[in-house]
Design goal:
There is one protein chain. 17% of the residues lie in helices and 23% in strands. By secondary structure, the protein is α+β, with helices and mostly antiparallel strands. It folds into four domains: 309 residues, 3-Layer(aba) Sandwich (Rossmann fold), CATH 3.40.50.11780; 256 residues, no CATH class; 233 residues, no CATH class; 62 residues, no CATH class. The strands form 13 sheets. Strands 5, 6, 11, 14, 15, 27, 28, 31, 32 and 34 form a ten-stranded mixed sheet that branches. An eight-stranded mixed sheet has the order 2-3-1-41-42-43-47-48, with helices on both faces. It has a five-stranded antiparallel sheet with strand order 24-18-17-25-37.
Length: 1015
């Protein structure tokens, strides 16, 4: 205490007590960073969790995975990879014994290749990128349409999509009538992929699957009735991994296709059998001249909503706006023709698909201001809901009440929910943070329209509606004349104009060799659609033109007299406030409904409607090929009749002048009736993985030792996660582990990263010994290699670093949540054992042996029930000589970690894990102590403060058996006058690490009866 702090008024003795005996407060160890796949959660962001329950809340449950044969589960729609999430088990192993841990979730990313070189894409692609056809595979869509007389327009929709590695598919049955010279129609049983066939039951058809040689490999009868045994998702393969011949062990299980999206609600709502009661279906390839419908090479990204839009502020019925207009005015002005303003949109905080599969967003309690003069801003509530709930039983995940659009208010929506996001800077290899308001939501962030954020928007604006996701534009088929030869049919995707994009003769009848007439496609403007027939019987397809189109040939059958309007699938909207039989109709959330028609049950096909569009098509903004699924607004609610109930949603009713707000001349009128809520969904998110791989981070194809950032998306993704953790001032940890990653380039990068930081130990999995089922289709015994393979691989690498450690073999663990067994890489249990050893004793005690390394006794934090390779004494010797720590199984003692070497070859104290971890711990703590002295005076008093904290700390380490002795030198001999002039304080710390006992030698001497022991 400075003498200046005493209050001297009258004479006397002034006493102050100063306690310098306080024990230095040692910070809680930072724990490990764990890199790998998880069920959900933020991707490529270091997130610290303090318990396993907190881990589950953010990243989901561990998944033991396992192969699934055809007909078991719905892998494509469930969206879960079949490979075990090893990172989750590593987190469980550590957090059950210790804490905290930092998790970095990995998803599929790709190099941006700004120098113009080629690079490996994230995501997946079925068949040829160029489009569908024999031998090339691709995406094939089933288009259904209602029956009608041949001169009457019909309506239809895309009902399902299949993805083929090669080959294709066709329907069979009775053709829609073919024209004859006398005008009569005849129906000929045949098959084809460009023909319209009549259903054989209620929306039931028969399909044939062909291989690349056009040999039929599967015949299936299917329908769209979920309770039927012939339901489409029950009878077709929905497991993409069965198309991967590298991991499918049986030819009987192998498939050349998988069923992707099915649009059950679209079929139910639009394919009703109007007319004769029959419906028709045709198989057509999906794509454009530049874009394949099967190309889903999309890197990991977050999902989004569309823009939320305002009400029409004009208060006279003469002024009406059509909310279906694509152009939104960003700033309010009564002089503009369109006065609908985009306000904000939501992004999922977490990269990937989980949020768009599991959450939806409602705006409710919309209230106009009641004090226009003092505060003209109204309020509203944002509710994050479970995707599968209903308006009858709302399940709220998060709620934000009293939000407004006043940037100066504490209730400003961006301030209440948060708008911060991070992007990876590929040049600096680190995350850069953007945004103004910390994220309070666990799931969403807000993006504001710049005009709203700058207080340039009209203060009365409130969220009144929302734009739906983009979809491909609906299209119309217009028939030509119905003479015997037939004339060209014009095909156009635009409703308001028609361009003839096909010309030449089209045979309208059963296919035969002489009927394969040539069709020459005329120049087609961007966005126009033509149907390509050619390259074989199963090679037709819907294509959208982007310029001059070449000549193709092939039969077109069964389309005589067909004029049809086809919808691409879109999210269903609530049509009436009476739907669902709500006790109070005003409780109805208009906008998107996620329930089955006339039911409160969740419609699983909603998941398929939120998926991203193919690569090369913007999933978040409309373009030449796309339109919004919907543009919803409360301004479009109308009264069903004059009785006052129910309310009906009809798009464009505001513009037509018959909506409630148009008739009343006031946007407040709909709120006054109590209808103040609507719902939308997130869309367009992607995990970036190859869904045909059960384990996208496999070493056999994705992470081979020749992989680089440019030729492997998986390599780039894992390296990116490691690089994010390279800066010690950005992420604090003392261990690094990426369970299951054996690629030598990546494991070396982990060790180098830890060594460059100087404050962490990398636990790596060595290559060899065992390959899980996700690597290849071999029998299990053929996926196990000798111990010598592992040791030879390690020796060949020539590694020499005390900042790395390796263990062997793989172990069998029990998933304590679902009870399943799985084989886990050794790094999982090694991490758990280090955590339990540190928790029981200290970091400088060896995490090995029966006392602290007994896996059977629970040291790993997860139940260990077996080892993949039972090691002999000679095996253990060979592993230890190669600096790999054995995991041994003894008959009586059980499974135990039986070594604690680092990967340092040079003999020293640092070739042991306990010494390296002791030094990491000491360096971190003394560095923390030193940081408190920065910018203090470089004088003896400051030096004494340093010594006064460091020496007691090291004394505690010594008394805890981490050091046998130490010495700290900080005086004029270390910090010389020259260093003082250069603003440097220099201390020397000498340490004698305490060594662990690894070898015990005992002599048992048998003596004669008369011998003295003293001898």
């Amino acid at each position: 205490m400075s003498v200046k702090q005493f209050k001297f008024v009258s004479p006397g003795v002034f006493i102050n007590e100063i306690d310098n005996s306080q024990i230095t407060n040692v910070g809680f160890p930072p724990g490990p960073v764990i890199i790998g796949r998880t069920e959900r959660g933020p991707a490529f962001q270091p997130i610290t969790v303090n318990s396993f329950s907190e881990y589950i809340d953010i990243f989901g449950n561990p998944s033991s995975g396992g192969p699934k044969p055809a007909g078991v589960g719905d892998v494509y729609r469930d969206g879960q990879l079949l490979g075990p999430t090893y990172a989750a088990y590593a987190a469980q192993a550590w957090l059950r014994n210790n804490g905290p841990a930092t998790i970095v979730r990995v998803l599929g990313d790709e190099h941006d290749a700004q120098d113009g070189t080629t690079y490996a894409r994230a995501g997946w692609n079925a068949g040829s990128v160029a489009g569908p056809g024999p031998g090339t595979g691709g995406a094939y869509g089933l288009f259904l349409f209602n029956s009608a007389s041949y001169d009457t327009a019909v309506s239809g929709t895309l009902a399902a999509v299949w993805y083929f590695n090669d080959g294709g598919m066709a329907l069979t049955g009775t053709l829609r009538g073919a024209a004859t010279t006398d005008g009569d129609s005849e129906e000929t049983p045949t098959s084809g992929s460009n023909a319209a066939f009549q259903s054989i039951g209620t929306n039931e058809f028969k399909a044939h699957i062909y291989n690349s040689s056009e040999d039929e490999v599967e015949t299936t009868t299917f329908n769209f009735t979920p309770t039927s045994n012939n339901y489409i998702r029950k009878v077709f393969n929905t497991n993409p991994t069965l198309t991967n011949s590298d991991i499918v062990s049986s030819n009987s299980q192998a498939k050349n296709y998988f069923l992707g999206e099915t649009y059950d609600r679209m079929v139910e709502d639009h394919i009703t059998g109007e007319g004769s009661g029959a419906t028709y279906g045709m198989i057509l390839g999906l794509g454009t001249t530049a874009i394949s419908g099967a190309d889903r090479r999309i890197k990991a990204r977050s999902s989004q909503t569309g823009w939320f839009i305002s009400q029409d502020l004009r208060n006279t019925s003469a002024n009406k706006s059509d909310h279906s207009a694509n152009v939104l005015d960003p700033v309010y002005s009564p002089m503009n023709a369109n006065v609908v303003t985009k306000l904000f949109k939501f992004h999922s905080l977490h990269t990937g698909e989980w949020e768009m599969r599991n959450l939806k967003i409602s705006i409710q309690d919309i209230k106009a201001s009641t004090a226009q003069d003092s505060d003209p801003y109204g309020t509203f509530t944002v509710v994050i809901r479970h995707m599968g709930d209903s308006d009858n039983a709302v399940r709220i995940v998060e709620r934000y009440t009293g939000c407004n659009l006043n940037p100066n208010s504490t209730n400003y929506i961006a301030r209440k929910i948060g708008d911060v996001y991070r992007e990876y800077d590929t040049t600096r290899r680190r995350l850069v943070e953007y945004g103004n308001y910390a994220n309070r939501s666990n799931f969403l962030r807000v993006e504001m329209n710049t005009s709203v954020d700058a207080s340039q928007a009209h203060p009365e604006l409130l969220p009144f509606g929302v734009y739906g996701p983009p979809k491909f534009k609906d299209f119309t088929i217009l028939s030509g004349d119905s003479d015997e030869a037939g004339n060209a049919a014009g095909y156009d995707i635009l409703n308001d104009e028609w361009d003839k994009v096909m010309s030449g003769s089209v045979y309208l009848g059963s296919p035969s060799n002489e009927d394969n007439l040539e069709h020459e496609a005329a120049s087609s403007g961007a966005g126009n659609l033509f149907i390509r027939f050619g390259g074989g019987e199963h090679a037709s397809g819907i294509y959208r033109g982007t310029g001059s189109v070449g000549t193709t040939s092939g039969p077109m059958v069964g389309h005589v007299g067909l004029t049809a309007s086809f919808l691409y699938p879109e999210l269903p909207l609530r049509v009436s406030s009476s739907a669902g039989n709500l006790a109070d109709p005003t409780d109805a959330y208009f906008g998107v409904t996620t329930n089955k028609n006339n039911s409160s049950r969740f419609d699983k096909s909603i998941v398929d409607l939120t998926r991203p569009l193919p690569s090369g098509v913007d999933s978040f903004a409309v373009g030449d090929l796309t339109q919004h699924m919907f543009v919803f607004s409360l301004d479009d609610l109308a009264q069903d009749d004059e009785s006052g109930s129910p309310l009906i949603y009809s798009s464009g009713s505001r513009g037509a002048g018959n909506s409630i707000t148009a008739v009343s001349g006031s946007w407040r009128s709909i709120l006054n009736k109590g209808y103040d809520r609507f719902t939308t969904v997130l869309h367009g998110g992607a995990n970036g993985w190859d869904i045909t791989e059960a384990e996208p981070l496999n070493e056999s194809r994705s992470l081979t030792n020749g992989a680089t950032e440019r030729n492997s998306s998986a390599f780039f993704s894992v390296k990116k996660a490691i690089d994010i953790c390279a800066d010690p001032e950005f992420v604090d940890y003392n261990l690094m582990v990426a369970p299951g990653i054996t690629n030598e380039g990546l494991t070396a990068h982990m060790i180098n990263t830890c060594e460059d930081r100087g404050d962490a130990l990398a636990i790596i999995d060595p290559m060899g010994g065992y390959l899980p089922w996700t690597e290849n289709a071999n029998a299990e015994k053929d996926r196990i290699t000798a111990v010598s393979t592992v040791t030879d691989n390690m020796r060949d690498r020539g590694m020499n670093s005390s900042y790395g450690a390796a263990y062997f073999p793989w172990v069998q663990i029990r998933d304590s949540i679902n009870g399943s067994l799985l084989w886990a890489p050794p790094s999982v249990v090694a991490l758990g054992t280090i955590g339990s050893s540190e928790n029981k004793t200290a970091p400088w005690f060896a995490p090995a042996g029966f006392t602290r390394g007994g896996l059977t006794e629970g040291a790993a934090g997860v139940p260990v029930v077996g080892v993949r390779t039972k090691l002999t004494s000679k095996d253990r010797d060979n592993l230890y000589e190669a600096n790999i720590n054995p995991i041994a199984s003894f008959p009586a003692e059980g499974i135990v970690i039986f070594g604690q070497k680092t990967l340092q070859v040079t003999p020293s104290a640092l070739d042991r894990i306990n010494v390296r971890r002791m030094l990491i711990f000491v360096k971190k703590e003394i560095s923390r102590i030193s940081s408190t002295l920065l910018f203090d005076q470089n004088v003896q008093a400051t030096w004494n403060r340093f010594l006064g904290e460091v020496q007691p700390f090291l004394t505690n380490v010594k008394s805890g058996l981490g050091l046998s002795d130490f010495r700290v030198v900080l005086d004029e001999t270390t910090t010389t006058d020259d260093l003082i002039d250069r603003n440097i304080m220099y201390a020397k710390i000498f340490l004698k690490p305490a060594r662990a006992i690894e070898f015990i030698a005992l002599d048992f001497v048998v003596s004669s009866t008369g011998a003295a022991f003293e001898d």
